[in-house]
Every structure is written in structure tokens, then in C-alpha cells.
UniProtKB/TrEMBL annotation:
Protein known as: Kynureninase
Positions of pyridoxal 5'-phosphate binding: L105, T106, F133, P134, S135, D136, D218, H221, Y243, W274, N302
A single Gene Ontology CC term: cytoplasm
Keyword flag Hydrolase: yes
Length: 428
């Protein structure tokens, strides 16, 4: 498609967009009496309007039924999480039995490492990507300390080549082969939070398995954003937060995936708790743990239904739309934003370097942009003029045009505000 940097062209794209109506499903902050252009769905998604009804339902059941709400509410609390199995399995490409919801992301990664990081004297190393999200780095360090290894010996970071912003697939595969029989676990972010690079999860997983290691993925920036086939890619485990692209609310519950090939492995250790016990016998209060079959058997505690309600509202919306439709718009609107940035670049003295891969197969709903010649003042200008974006030192802004609630007109308007911010500074 040949793009144009005009309001008329942007409106034409919106008129052809089957998902455009979903903008009205969300609540937008206001700046200067106008709804914002929201680019930070990769940090916290907007609130769907339907969320309140899901939360109110739980609150009303609590008020009217109290403890009996566990069994007699319209959506009984004791099996509330089971409503996620089918819609969530479609989002991440899994069998319904392979997904569950519980806890929060880093907690779940720690719990999954109980099962899948089982170091020995000779096989104890973890491969991750350089500049992983800090929480993952802290998790790796604390895990290897727990097992009495030194992080500098046990954690292997795959680095970017000199002068490059992204990690090459061949370097990941070469490092896996190099570590070889010392490799216990590959655990990488499916989408790098800083650059927006999408990793080839299928190929990397196969390479890790060939080396004899388990392979897991942190899908914080991938779930609800990237076409995933966790079951078919033979991934051992994965976890993700729900409050970014899936709009479940700040700090909300995490999703987990455990491949079905592990469900019957009684030798696989796990930390157990009451809610992971055999559902049909849970209230018999038996002393010996008998896990629920499937991913639900990794649950530990009674689930926070008030937190799950907004998440359920969101996955129901995803189920209406389907990932294929989301990704089709994602690719088009991200390409249009890329075009707008290049067009504005021609009209100002500053230069923009997009450090996110240009290949659509290696990116999703994020463009990370180095603003050469610009500083924090430009970010502040954008925020004051209704563009909610994300600043990362030294001079990177992350822009996430989430297909559920951003429009092509938003992309055009952003370009005009960006240009005004740079030219206004030059004219001072």
C-alpha cells in the first residue's frame, strides 16, 4: 500500500478498519478536553468500558451471597478461572488444559523455574537476552544464588553485535550450541521490552531442546500482541502479565502455559498448594497433594476473583475479535506509524532512528525511536499536548499503536504534534 501523510488518507484507512469501532469500547484519559493519543499499551492498557460490569457482578454476589458466592453466584468463584481456558488458549496457541491464571508474572516465572530449572553439577547454565527486563535479571540472579551458583558463571547473556540494536537469530543459535551440555534452561522475553524485537520462538525452542535444555518464554510483551503457537512450537512453559495488551488493570493476574507433555510427569517438582489439588476432592482436606491434571495443577492459592474479573472482560473481547484480525491491523497501523515518522523526519532538523526491526516478522505493536538531537523536553511536550508515550534513557521513546484502540488518524495527528514540538523548540 502507498501511504500518504494526510488527514484525509488517515480517515480513509479508519473507514476501512473493521476494528475501528472498538475505540468506543475503551475509556481514554483527557488532555485539554480531548482524548489522548495513547501509545503506552505496552505498559498498561486502557480500561475497557465493559470491565465495570464484570467487577460489579462479583461485588454484588459478594454483597448478596457472601461465602455462598463460591458456589451459587452466576459465575461461581471456585471455578471462575476455568472460564479463561478456551479464550486464553486461542490467544497463545495452546490447548485449554495447558493454560491457567494465577499470581503475577515474576512470581509465576519463579514457580515455573522450580519445575524447569533443575541444575546439576555439569548442566546448570541459563541463556537469556542482554538487556532483558530488570525483573527477569533479578529473577535469574536470585535463582542461581538459591542453587548455590554464581551469576557470572551460570547466566549467559546473548549480546548485540557492536553498533547494532537487535540480537541476531544466528547468534542465539550459536550460543545455545556453544554452551551445549552445560545448558539447563533457555528463558528469553518473546518481545524485547526496550527495542520491540520479536524473537523466533519456534526456532530457538527447537535449538534449546536439541541441546538437552528446557525452554521457556517471558511473554509479557507478546501475549495479546503476537501470533503465538506455544503448543505447536513445543515450548515447555511460558508466563505473561495481563495488564499490557490485554487491558486487565494495573498489576493484575498473570497467565501461565505448561505443555501437555509435562502434565503426567510425577517426577517434575513443583511448589504445591490447596488450589492446585484435585478439584473433585479439594474440600475433603486430604493431607497428600494430588494435583489437578493440566496447568491448573500448578496453582497454589485461592484465586483473587476481583482481579480476575477485569481480565475475563478482556479475554472475552479478544475472543470476539480473534488474533488474526488484531494482527492484520497491527501490521498495517505500525507500518503507517513508521511511514509518518520518516515523513516528519524529512521536515525537521532532528533525525529519528527506529531501532525496532523493520521486518514485520520481527516486530509487533511497538516502535522504539532514538531521537537524535532531542532530549526529555520533547517527551514532555508530547505529554502536555495529549500524546501519552514512554521515555527510556538516554533518548528513546517507545510507541505502541495498539490495534484495539488506536486509529490511523491518531498516527497522523501524532506526526503533526511531534513536528510542532521540534519546530517550536527551533523557533524559540
Amino acid at each position: 500500500m502507498t501511504f500518504e501523510n494526510t488527514l484525509e488518507f488517515a480517515k480513509k484507512l479508519d473507514s476501512q478498519d473493521q476494528l475501528h469501532k472498538y475505540q468506543d469500547e475503551f475509556i481514554f484519559p483527557q488532555v485539554k478536553g480531548k482524548k489522548v493519543i495513547y501509545f503506552t499499551g505496552n505498559s498498561l492498557g486502557l480500561q475497557p468500558k465493559r470491565t465495570k460490569a464484570y467487577v460489579d457482578e462479583v461485588m454484588n454476589d459478594w454483597a448478596n451471597l457472601a461465602v455462598e458466592g463460591h458456589f451459587y453466584s452466576e459465575k461461581p468463584w471456585w471455578d471462575y478461572h476455568e472460564r479463561f481456558a478456551n479464550p486464553l488458549s486461542k490467544i497463545v496457541g495452546a490447548l485449554p488444559s495447558e493454560v491457567t491464571v494465577m499470581n503475577t508474572l515474576t512470581v509465576n516465572l519463579h514457580l515455573l523455574m522450580v519445575s524447569f530449572y533443575r541444575p546439576t553439577k555439569t548442566r546448570y547454565k541459563i541463556i537469556c537476552e542482554e538487556k532483558a527486563f530488570p525483573s527477569d535479571q533479578y529473577m535469574f540472579q536470585s535463582q542461581v544464588h538459591f542453587h548455590r551458583y554464581k551469576p557470572e558463571d551460570a547466566i549467559i547473556e546473548i549480546k548485540r553485535r557492536e553498533g547494532e540494536h537487535n540480537i541476531r537469530l544466528e547468534d542465539v543459535l550459536a550460543k545455545i550450541e556453544e554452551v551445549g551440555e552445560e545448558l539447563a534452561l533457555v528463558l528469553i522475553g518473546g518481545v524485547n521490552y526496550y527495542t520491540g524485537q520479536v524473537f523466533d520462538m519456534k526456532t530457538i525452542t527447537a535449538a534449546g531442546h536439541k541441546a538437552g535444555a528446557y525452554v521457556g518464554w517471558d511473554l509479557a510483551h507478546a501475549a495479546g500482541n503476537v501470533k503465538l503457537e506455544l503448543h505447536n512450537w513445543d515450548i515447555d512453559f511460558a508466563a505473561w502479565c495481563s495488564y499490557k495488551y490485554m487491558n486487565s488493570g494495573p498489576g493484575n493476574a498473570s497467565g501461565c502455559f505448561i505443555h501437555e507433555k509435562h502434565h503426567n510427569n510425577s517426577e517434575l517438582p513443583r511448589f504445591a498448594g490447596w488450589w492446585g489439588h484435585n478439584k473433585e476432592r479439594r474440600f475433603k482436606m486430604e493431607p497428600t497433594f494430588d494435583p489437578v491434571h493440566g496447568a491448573d495443577g500448578w496453582q497454589i492459592s485461592n484465586l483473587p476473583v476481583l482481579s480476575l474479573a477485569p481480565y475475563l472482560a478482556s479475554v472475552d473481547m479478544f475472543d470476539e475479535i480473534g488474533m488474526d484480525a488484531l494482527i492484520q491491523k497491527r501490521d498495517l497501523i505500525t507500518s503507517y506509524l513508521e511511514f509518518i515518522l520518516h515523513e516528519i523526519d524529512k521536515e525537521v532538523d532532528s533525525s529519528f532512528e527506529i531501532i525496532t526491526p523493520s521486518d514485520p516478522a520481527e516486530r509487533a505493536s511497538q516502535l522504539s525511536v532514538l531521537l537524535h538531537g532531542e532530549g526529555r523536553s520533547l517527551f514532555d511536550y508530547l505529554m502536555k499536548n495529549g500524546v501519552i508515550t514512554d521515555w527510556r534513557e538516554p533518548n528513546v521513546i517507545r510507541l505502541a499503536p495498539v490495534p484495539l484502540y488506536t486509529s490511523f488518524e491518531d498516527m497522523y495527528e501524532f506526526g503533526q504534534i511531534l513536528k510542532a514540538g521540534i519546530l517550536g523548540k527551533a523557533n524559540l
